[in-house]
Specification:
By secondary structure, the protein is an alpha+beta fold. It has 1 helix and 4 strands. The chain has a 4-stranded antiparallel sheet with strand order 1-2-3-4. The longest helix is centred in the last third of the chain and has 13 residues. The radius of gyration is 12 Å and the shape is globular.
């Protein structure tokens, strides 16, 4: 998939210092990339893996 055409979103908690990621959700899962170097290819995950990651973040399991 061409990552330049994806609907990228940055967290509203981002402070604008470039220390965050951007996420683009698609029907096939989620793509994510580093905001500091958008030239690096985006990584992707399945919907199941992305959901598990979000659940762990929300539960504080990654702190």
């Amino acid at each position: 998939m061409d990552s330049t055409t994806l609907p990228w979103k940055t967290s509203s908690y981002s402070t604008g210092n470039g220390a965050c990621i951007e996420v683009a959700k698609t029907s096939s899962g989620a793509y994510f990339r580093d905001t500091k170097d958008r030239g690096i290819p985006a990584a992707s995950s399945s919907p199941t893996a992305w959901g598990a990651f979000l659940g762990a973040v929300k539960a504080g399991a990654l702190a």
